[in-house]
Amino acid sequence: MKNELTEKIKELTKEVRLPGVRKYLTEEINQANLKNLTYEDFLYSLLLKEYDLRLESGKKNRIRLAGFPYRKYLEDLSVGDLPIDAQKRLKVLKSLDFIEQGQNVILAGSPGTGKTHLAIGLGIKACLSGYKVLFVTVPLLINQLKESRSQRILSRTEGKFEKYDLVIADELGYISFDKEGSELLFTHLSLRAGRKSTIITTNLSFDRWEEIFGDTVMTAAMIDRLTHKSYLLNMNGGSYRLKETKEWLAKQEEEKDELN
Fold first, then answer.
1. What predicted TM-score, i.e. pTM, was given to this entire model?
2. Between 179-190 and 138-150, two packed helices, what is the crossing angle to 10 degrees?
3. Count of the separate structural domains present in the chain
4. Same domain, 24 and 132
5. Are residues 178 and 61 in the same domain?
6. What is the pLDDT of residues 30-72, one digit of tens each?
7. Judgement on whether residues 112 and 167 belong to the same structural domain of the protein
8. Residue 139 sits in a domain of what CATH number?
């Protein structure tokens, strides 16, 4: 009879969407009987399992929905190989206070120095801390905005974009874009200025941004809005990817020598 009742309870948990209760019900019943727990203690312990499971599921869902191209954690960073500016600012950025303050972070420098890894690491940490995050490359973002305009749903896209606690706009400057793309990107990023945080990675210094936007006035306005009370990190330095490649090649040679 008890087993039948347990199965009925589990069926009900499917209807009211309590996966944690369903998963841990039998275990908690056994513990309650073993320890002679009160009804209150049993119920509290069971609901706590449900709460913990939902927290964990929420973290996973936020990471999944953010659209990261791959998982890179801050703990995986080789801090000593980062440019000096990044090493100095890492502690304050890891606190995520810049998200609470609605401040931007601009990572500008040569390829392979850890810009995207650092941005993704901060983004994943933000997801784990309960923030809603979006990762998107600038070329893809512009294409999405153009499609939204052609489908007459641009305002809906803008409204959704504004609600993210953190947007990571990767690869600004790798591909140039036309006047329409420049205007859409300017408008889109301006919506968040001073209110919500944006991390931008770029291989171009500010004095070369006009090459992307093709308009002196728009470039000046964009830089002014993005950099106001922002963290500007000089990411110029030796290529981290090149260092990893050399280490990998050296390891291959060692293994080859061992076989011989």
1. 0.82
2. 100
3. 2
4. no
5. no
6. 999 999 999 899 889 989 998 989 989 999 999 999 999 999 9
7. yes
8. 3.40.50.300
81 secondary structure, DSSP code:
G
Cα–Cα distance, 97 to 75 (Å, whole number): 18
Helices (H), 1-96: 2-15, 19-35, 39-66, 84-94
Torsion (CA) 244, 108, 68, 80 in degrees, nearest 10: 40
Q: Residue 171: pLDDT band by 50, 70, 90 thresholds?
A: very high
pLDDT of residue 237: 78
Q: What are the beta bridge partners of residue 231?
A: 105
Q: Which domain holds residue 212?
A: 67-243
Please check whether residues 8 and 74 belong to one and the same domain.
no
Pairwise CA distance, residues 6 & 235, whole Å:
58
Within a domain: 213: yes
* Cα gap 96→91, rounded to integer Å: 9
Alpha-helix residue ranges (DSSP H) falling in the chain:
2-15, 19-35, 39-66, 84-94, 97-100, 115-128, 138-150, 154-162, 179-190, 210-213, 216-227, 240-259
- Amino acid residing at 5: L
In a domain, 177, yes or no: yes
Residue 1 has pLDDT above 60, yes or no: no
Instruction: Give domain status of residue 129, yes or no.
Output: yes
Judge if 167 and 221 occupy the same domain. yes
- pLDDT tens figures, 199-226: 999 999 888 888 888 888 988 998 998 9
Residue from 53, 73, 52 nearest 63 by CA: 73
pLDDT value at position 7?
Answer: 85
Tokens at 7, concatenated: 């199965």
**239 in a domain, yes or no?**
yes
Residue 199's H or E segment, with its range, is: strand 197-202
Q: Which residue has the tokens 């990893």?
A: 244
